[in-house]
Design goal:
By secondary structure, the protein is α/β, with parallel strands linked by helices. The chain is built from 16 helices and 12 strands. It has one domain: TIM Barrel.
Length: about 375
């Protein structure tokens, strides 16, 4: 199977599975507990039908949006995700370059493998920094100051990860950073030698956002242990309010699901919220972002930009979210599989397919611009 044979999300996933050692593929592909929420995230879109209009004169399509003060050429962006250079040696550089080509936003994670300063110097499209709240408050302040100096446009605080989800696939393979694999996990690396060759012949794997603050070299600090031992489960709304005030700019909370939390985010001065259940990787059985979208838009949509992620696989999914009232949609696995499969070329192909689908679907919906998409265009079964 080649990159040119990939025409949708599932094709990219197959190619990524073919290329990656199983422990790394399962880190991307896996979710919490029984992975029910993971699958429901996409299934929730199937319970919603589009109602197209015809004869609307849709010769020209404008799919641009403005979200949290950032002008995006298309209504999707590449959500910040951790450990990208494990999936492909180009890592965040590939994602940033592809997002720049398509005029949209991308993000660097606290657990990113390229420094946010290096990425910011190379690309001038909107950039978000995904931030975790650590027990060390001085570390939190230092990381925010660093992001501010780097010229980050949007601070994105993840609030649904104060402890790690129960990701049983990782437990079975022994996936951790640094690697401490089970015997079966090591065998999987042995039968995918090209990944290992690329890993050892390119720049040394590191976590630049944390290198100065966290020693991950002394033993296997698993991703789950990082969340459990380093992050602060006592974080409160007062802590977040202080961060919003300190940042004094575009600030969003990622991981909002309840209406009450959406209202609190607006009250403390956040400029955006991302409805997300972390792609099903945290609390299995939680409500899907798409199922919560209308209620939250109705409550705070006139006060704060409402965004959503989790489960997006098609342009029609994006149109359904926009019709309900989302300002934009975040992509995660949608670009991680292509990254793993083919680096920058893979991400560019995935974004091209998404752009083509959105444009085609907007024409078929009779919508010349995103504002033409309203709840009159959807019906729930």
């Amino acid at each position: 199977m080649r990159l040119s044979h990939c025409h949708n999300f599932h094709d990219f996933r197959k190619l990524a599975k073919k290329r990656l050692p199983a422990p790394i593929f399962n880190y991307i592909d896996g979710a919490a507990d029984d992975e029910i929420t993971y699958h429901q995230n996409t299934a929730s879109f199937e319970r919603c039908d589009l109602v197209p209009n015809v004869l609307r004169g849709v010769k020209d399509i404008d799919m641009s949006v403005t979200v949290m003060g950032q002008k995006l050429a298309m209504p999707v962006y590449c959500s910040p995700t951790a450990l990208q250079r494990l999936f492909h040696h180009q890592g965040e550089n590939a994602v940033a370059a592809a997002a720049h080509k398509f005029g949209t936003m991308f993000g660097v994670s606290s657990l990113g493998t390229v420094s946010l300063e290096d990425i910011r110097k190379k690309y001038n499209n909107p950039q978000a920094y995904q931030f975790y709240f650590h027990k060390d408050r001085a570390l939190n302040k230092a990381m925010m100051e660093r992001a501010k100096l780097a010229g980050i446009n949007v601070m994105m605080l993840t609030v649904d990860s104060i402890t790690g989800g129960n990701r049983e696939r990782d437990l079975r393979t022994g996936f951790s950073i640094p690697f401490k694999l089970t015997l079966g996990g090591m065998l999987q690396f042995a039968i995918k030698p090209m990944w290992g060759i690329h890993y050892i012949t390119h720049e040394r794997f590191k976590l630049p956002q944390l290198d100065e603050h966290v020693d991950m070299s002394g033993g296997a600090l698993s991703i789950g242990r990082y969340f459990t031992e380093m992050l602060d489960p006592s974080m409160t709304w007062d802590d977040v309010a202080e961060m919003v005030q300190f940042w004094n700019g575009q600030f969003c909370l990622k991981g909002i699901i309840s209406v009450e939390d959406a209202k609190r985010a607006a009250d403390i001065g956040c400029t955006g919220i991302i409805l997300s259940n972390h792609g099903g990787r945290q609390l299995d059985g939680s409500r899907t972002p798409f199922d919560q979208l209308s209620e939250i838009v109705d409550t705070v949509g006139n006060k704060i930009d409402v965004i959503m992620d989790s489960g997006i696989q098609r342009g029609t999914h994006v149109l359904k979210a926009l019709s309900i009232g989302a300002k934009a949609v975040g992509l995660g696995r949608y670009y991680l599989y292509p990254l793993a499969a083919a680096g920058q070329n893979g991400v560019e192909r995935a974004l091209h397919i998404m752009k083509t689908e959105i444009e085609r679907d907007m024409r078929l919906m009779g919508a010349s611009c995103v504002d033409d998409l309203t709840r009159a265009n959807v019906r729930f079964r």
